């Protein structure tokens, strides 16, 4: 029996005393303690237990069993109390952690997490749960701290009389303009669950496109890192072996071989790293400076649309994002000009952003949308044709949805084709780097062999 969980000192002493009595009573060689007994330790005969002591033994057993049951219940109660404390501490941590975010700028959550939270909110509202309760459930269960804190604050604001769209406007870092516009339109039309469903699907499609582009870039990035590691290992461990051979021969070395040997010597000195780290930091700062200049960003985006290997993927991903966003906003009843303004902000390429801006002013002037897109050489003919058919038949929303589905499928196929092209190119890239180093190191050997021959 473990007495550590017994908090009452008196009860603990009583248990220890009862255990001692039990040991005494259960001893078969026990000597009863009565007045007339004149027995010493030298006698080995066992004296029978008197009836009085036998009754006492039964009472002690009953008392001990009752006490044992009581103690076991106390121990179980204590364990449950400790486990309950741990559970309450976890719950307090979930509550207190978002409070630490008060007064701080929230981070933008991953698109997948926001899509899951939006889908859950829509499902709970559809099943009949009140909006406040649904928001609080998501705030308690979400793993992302930005979603947890913002949903908790939104629920608090709604309970005080604010609308959901008004509360969303307070957290632009978590909910972008597209999200806020869709929720506002859904509240106005009284179709909030449908709007949230549409919003969740939109976020899922955007996350899918983003993931596909990342997967297309992951392979070349991994190969580039592997190439750097291989070259670094060769410089540190392979080239010094050749250096020892050439030092013994004393033969003159070609320029490229001498350059690699000098570079290898530099890499094996600590001074090189003292120079390389500040230089790398300076290059990083220069890169950040260039990436913040609009002229450099414009040139980079334009180059992506001109390179044959990236043009197809960039164009289709931009059109897929734009079509899906415009379709969701238009279906929710958001005006076309406002939809264009919001959809423009989902595009990362400045060339496409400028095209949407020009289309906005053309439509504002009274021109059809398909004519605004027809003037741009970057926009495919099929895209403008579908817009024209949608405007003429009055089914623009359906046509934009079909365009979004089509270009999302095209992005998937473009990623697969780009990956299949990049695989052999990256293998050739690695082979060229390693081959140059090997040829440079074997050139002196070939010249020595020809001299001997």
TrEMBL record:
**UniProt KW Ribonucleoprotein keyword:** no
Q: Which GO terms describe its biological process?
A: protein secretion
Q: Where in the cell is it found?
A: Cell inner membrane; Cell membrane
**Known InterPro entries for this protein?**
GspF/PilC (IPR003004), T2SS_GspF/T4SS_PilC_CS (IPR001992), T2SS_GspF_dom (IPR018076), T2SS_GspF_sf (IPR042094)
Q: Please state every residue range assigned to the domain named Type II secretion system protein GspF.
A: 118-240, 322-444
Q: How does it sit in the membrane?
A: Multi-pass membrane protein
Bilayer-spanning residue ranges: 217-243, 272-290, 425-443
Q: Which UniProt keywords apply?
A: Cell inner membrane, Cell membrane, Membrane, Transmembrane, Transmembrane helix, Transport
Q: What GO CC annotations are associated with the protein?
A: plasma membrane
Q: Does the keyword Lyase apply?
A: no
Q: Which domain of life is it from?
A: Bacteria
* Family (UniProt): Belongs to the GSP F family.
According to UniProt, the name of this protein is Type II secretory pathway component PulF-like protein
Give the organism, scientific name: Prochlorococcus marinus (strain MIT 9301)
């Amino acid at each position: 029996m473990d007495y550590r969980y017994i908090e009452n000192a008196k009860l603990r002493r009583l248990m220890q005393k009862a255990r001692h009595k039990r040991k005494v009573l259960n001893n078969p060689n026990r000597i009863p303690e009565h007045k007339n007994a004149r027995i010493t330790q030298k006698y080995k005969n066992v004296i029978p237990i008197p009836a009085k002591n036998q009754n006492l033994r039964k009472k002690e057993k009953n008392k001990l069993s009752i006490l044992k049951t009581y103690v076991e219940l106390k121990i179980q109660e204590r364990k449950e109390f400790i486990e309950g404390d741990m559970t309450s501490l976890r719950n307090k941590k979930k509550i207190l952690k978002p409070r630490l975010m008060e007064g701080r700028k929230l981070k933008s959550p991953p698109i997948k997490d926001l899509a899951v939270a939006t889908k859950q909110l829509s499902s709970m509202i559809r099943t009949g749960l009140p909006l406040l309760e649904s928001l609080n459930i998501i705030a308690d269960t979400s793993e992302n701290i930005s979603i947890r804190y913002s949903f908790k604050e939104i629920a608090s604001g709604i309970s005080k009389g604010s609308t959901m769209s008004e509360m969303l406007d307070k957290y632009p870092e978590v909910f972008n303009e597209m999200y806020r516009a869709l929720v506002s339109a859904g509240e106005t039309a009284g179709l909030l669950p449908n709007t949230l469903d549409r919003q969740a699907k939109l976020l899922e499609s955007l996350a899918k496109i983003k993931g596909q582009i990342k997967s297309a870039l992951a392979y070349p990035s991994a190969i580039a890192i592997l190439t750097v590691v291989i070259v670094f290992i060769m410089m540190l461990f392979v080239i010094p072996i050749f250096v020892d051979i050439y030092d013994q021969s004393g033969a003159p070395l070609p320029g490229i071989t001498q350059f690699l040997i000098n570079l290898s010597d530099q890499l094996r000195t600590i001074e090189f790293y003292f120079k390389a780290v500040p230089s790398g930091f300076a290059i990083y700062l220069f890169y950040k400076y260039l990436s913040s200049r609009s002229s450099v960003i414009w040139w980079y985006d334009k180059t992506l649309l001109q390179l044959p290997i990236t043009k197809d993927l960039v164009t289709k991903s931009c059109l897929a994002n734009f079509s899906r966003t415009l379709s969701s906003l238009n279906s929710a009843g958001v005006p076309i000009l406002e939809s264009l303004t919001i959809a423009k902000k989902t595009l990362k390429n400045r060339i496409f952003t400028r095209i949407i801006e020009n289309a906005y002013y053309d439509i504002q002037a009274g021109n059809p949308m398909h004519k605004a897109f027809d003037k741009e050489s970057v926009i495919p003919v099929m895209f403008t044709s579908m817009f024209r058919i949608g405007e003429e038949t009055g089914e623009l929303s359906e046509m934009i949805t079909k365009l979004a589905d089509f270009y999302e499928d095209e992005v998937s196929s473009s990623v697969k084709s780009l990956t299949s092209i990049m695989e052999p190119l990256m293998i050739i890239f690695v082979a060229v780097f390693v081959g140059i180093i090997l040829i440079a190191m074997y050139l002196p050997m070939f010249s020595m062999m020809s001299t001997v021959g």
